[in-house]
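1st attempt posting a full record on here, be nice pls
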Amino acid sequence: MVLANVSERGIVVKLPHLVGQRFEELANLIGPAGAFALEGKASTVALSTFRAHESLRASLCHGVGKIVLDQQGGWLLVLRTLAFRSKQPQRTVLVIEENEAEGLVKSLQAAGQRLRSELGNLRHTLSPT
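the predicted structure (as tokens):
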């Protein structure tokens, strides 16, 4: 994916294939020392807010889940994930209760919409006229 082709500055950016690496590269590009620090100032906050949900993404994409019912009939989502870091296994368990899920979904949707909007604005700002 090409983020920008800015003719007056001669910068072409190709983002990596993996999502986590894309977020990291984008954060570097629009961060204080990045090539697009000035133009990307508003996007850095939106990206940071969205990345707060990154552990949820990893669990949803790579975890194995079960849905269980509690004694009151409410559901719980249990996601187990196994990752290897420095050749060592790391197991995580994420439990989301039904009453937490609605707030989490709303937060994720709002953060995603803001990030899409800010990145659209950034792309428009960086587009050659």
